[in-house]
Amino acid sequence: MEGIVSFSDWEKIDLRVGQVKNVEEIEGADKLYKLTIDLGKETGKRIVCAGLKEYYKKEDLQDKKIILFVNLAPRKLKGIESQGMILAAVNSEHSEVVLISPEKDVELGSRIM
What we know:
The chain is mainly beta. The chain has one domain (7-99): CATH 2.40.50.140.
């Protein structure tokens, strides 16, 4: 386990339920997809670049509910501003990635506590 996060740091992290509305290829990117994530009425939609190509087909991501780190500072990847990070579990060999998604149907934009 790396480092200890204080409770006040944890309170700053904003994790929300979102739904993948569009999946696009990115020219010249072997690992990245460009995803449009719907976070509900309050937050709206975000563009996120995610290194999921090795693990998921485009059609398997379409309409999938995910957890998004929404207040992560934006970062440019392949010229696209990525506005968040999708939460996923990865095995020790990095050969399998599994997206974290809500167990039950919850409203888009719901905050993860």
